[in-house]
Amino acid sequence: MKHRLERVNEVIKRELSEIISREIDFSAQVLVTVQAVDITADLRHCDVFVSAIGKEEKRSRVLNELDEHRTTLQRELARRVVLKYTPQLHFKLDSSIERGSRVLDIMRRLEEPPGNSE
Asked: For residues 26 and 65, what is the distance between their CA atoms, to the nearest angstrom?
């Protein structure tokens, strides 16, 4: 059963990524990607973890925009992925890429020779 859910998660992630990129225009100032999805065992709910890279004010609107398009996204997902139920999508912000970039930036600064900071 666990492997089946993993396969379903991958299919939903792939299809939802494509649907979001086609259906929603976030503007050129923010890049939105679906990082992961986690569907419940009963297939009725699905957490969708998205990352948004770009200007802060644009990133904060990403979840609102996705929530506004939820019914369209669910309907399109139901057309592409045949499941017993169409899961209700719950969007959550995944900031792991942003945290990773910050860690890499800190590591880069630590490697600089002393007295080189401007």
From this structure: 8
Q: Where exactly are the structural domains of the chain?
A: 2-111
Q: Which SS3 state, helix, strand or coil, does residue 29 take?
A: coil
Q: Which residues, listed in sequence order, are joined to residue 23 by a DSSP beta bridge?
A: none
For helices 2-23 and 70-80, angle between their N-to-C axes, nearest 10 degrees: 120
Tell me the pLDDT of the chain (118 aa) as tens digits.
678 899 999 999 999 999 999 988 877 678 888 999 999 999 999 999 998 887 777 777 888 889 999 999 999 999 999 888 889 999 998 877 667 777 777 878 888 877 655 5
DSSP string, 30-81: EEEEEEEEEE-TTSSEEEEEEEEEE-HHHHHHHHHHHHHTHHHHHHHHHHHS
CATH numeric code, 2-111: 3.30.300.20
Residue 92 DSSP class: E
